[in-house]
Amino acid sequence: MARRAPIRIGIARSRVWLGVLTACFAVCLAAAAQSRAQAGQAEPQVQSDQAQASQATSPVVLDRAVAVVNAHVILASDVGDEIRLSVFDPNSVGQGGLTQQRALEQLISRTLIEQQIRQEDMQAIEPSQQEVNARLNQLRSQLPVCVRQNCASDAGWNTFLKSHGLTPERVEAYLRYRLEILSFIEQRFRQGIQISEQQIETYYDGTLLPQYAPGETIPPLSQVASRIQEILLEQQVNMLFDNWLNNLRQQGDVEVLAPELVPAPAPAAETPEAPNGPGKGSL
Fold first, then answer.
1. What is the pLDDT of residue 40?
2. How far from chain centre, in Å, is Cα 107?
3. Gyration radius from the chain CA atoms
4. What is the mean pLDDT of residues 192-199?
5. Distance between CA atoms of 134 and 113, rounded to whole angstroms?
6. What is the DSSP string of 102-132?
7. Is residue 185 predicted with pLDDT exceeding 50?
8. At residue 198, does pLDDT exceed 90?
9. Is there a domain that residue 154 lies in?
10. Mean pLDDT estimate for the chain
11. Looking at the domain assignment, is residue 134 inside a domain?
12. What distance in Å separates the CA atoms of residue 132 and residue 68, rounded to the nearest whole number?
């Protein structure tokens, strides 16, 4: 009997150790499962953080250069601005709106003209604030698209500007430029050109009146005659103006950087349309 006691004690101790090992193994399994669960929950968060970090470091294109004219950069936002301002040009409205290519062409011409004016130091052609205000009042009360939205009133004018993404400051700068160019054209190209009363009446009856819808208030000829004369003058000098601009472009350094804005070549038998100078065809 004395000899068998150690064996039973050894067996009992073995059972105890086996129970301890089993318990430890179960705890380890539970800990491993919990760790895997936590890792699975953390993985989407890590991916989300990585995605947010990637978005935060990705470059955001605010604007881009689309053309360079004698070291002067024209931006994509300038093209968009030109398209919005075309609401003041009945010619563009009548042709279905100004395209990006056409808008860029106008901006290139405008830049070349402005550079030439500065080069010749023609400060005398800069319009006064009174002239700009007078043209603005004329536009708000007479331009057909403005008449329809009652731009003569401050509330109507503000609503009109907001609906077209414009500001009073931008419109004033636009009108100032137009007046400056008109003065430049008059000094450079008007000599010898006369506009008859018959031409003014023909434009009034055939071009201006059809722009007004039935029932709208139409300004009398006497009120818009001076502006019509201005428009016809610009049309008369287009050929001279085109030749002058073409020479400027040949002598200058003009590069279009955006391939989608490169104008398509005109057919050989077709005379290229004159650049739409400021104020051409509009009131």
1. 53
2. 12
3. 37
4. 88
5. 24
6. HHHHHHHHHHHHHHHHHHHT-GGGPPPHHHH
7. yes
8. yes
9. yes
10. 77
11. yes
12. 29
pLDDT at 117: 85
What is the residue range of 148's domain? 65-261
Which region, left, alpha or beta, applies to residue 194 given φ > 0 means left and ψ of -120 to 50 means alpha? beta
Contact 208, 140 (CB under 8 A): no
What is the tally of structural domains in the chain? 1
* Structural domain contains residue 44: no
Closest to 221 in 3D by CA, of 213, 29, 229: 229
Q: What is the pLDDT of residue 76?
A: 94
Note the pTM of the prediction, 2 decimals.
0.58
Summarised one tens digit per residue, pLDDT across range 84-110 is 999 888 666 555 678 999 999 999 988
Residue 24 located in a structural domain: no
Q: Which residue has the tokens 């009446």?
A: 201
pLDDT for position 267: 43
Report angle CA 69, 75, 76 to the nearest 5 degrees: 130
CA distance 133 to 191: 27
Q: If you ran DSSP here, which 8-state letter would residue 65 be given? A: E
Closest CA relative to residue 189, chosen from 119, 257, 237, 256: 237
Report the CATH number that the domain containing residue 250 is assigned in CATH. 1.10.4030.10
